[in-house]
Amino acid sequence: MTIPNTITLDALRHTPVGDIAALPPEDLARLQADADVALRDAKSLRDWLDGAIALKYGDRAAQARHEAGKDTGTVRFADGPVTVVTDLPKRVDWDQDKL
Questions:
Q1: Which of 41, 39, 26 is nearest to 7 (CA)?
Q2: Is the confidence at residue 3, as pLDDT, over 50?
Q3: Local structure of 51: helix, strand or coil
Q4: What pLDDT, on the 0 to 100 scale, is given for residue 4?
Q5: How does the average pLDDT of the chain come out, rounded?
Q6: Dist CA 53 CA 48 (whole Å)
Q7: What is the DSSP string of the chain?
Q8: In DSSP terms, which residues pair with 78 in a beta bridge?
Q9: CA distance 21 to 28
Q10: Which of 10, 16, 64, 81 could form a disulfide with 75 if both were Cys (CB 3.0 to 4.6 A apart)?
């Protein structure tokens, strides 16, 4: 039994674009589908990490914003050698009936 000679996303990073363009269409379609899955996984992981960071620093950011007399905007504070920067944008509330 022979193993098909297929390129992986990892190998794709180091492959010249001309070589990628020369791949059979089924390989290009598979790589594109694999990249879509990897992107969804990366976004999910980023959301998970952002949630953990919000949990860790949310109260401290709210306190820093309160001490600065701000309801919204950017605040900075240190956690050891790391400067944490958090931004709470203004939210516009529309009164549709008055418009």
A1: 26
A2: no
A3: helix
A4: 57
A5: 90
A6: 9
A7: --------HHHHTTS-HHHHHTS-HHHHHHHHHHHHHHHHHHHHHHHHHHHHHHHHHHHHHHHHHHHTT-SSEEEEEEETTEEEEEEE---PPP-TTT-
A8: 83
A9: 8
A10: 64
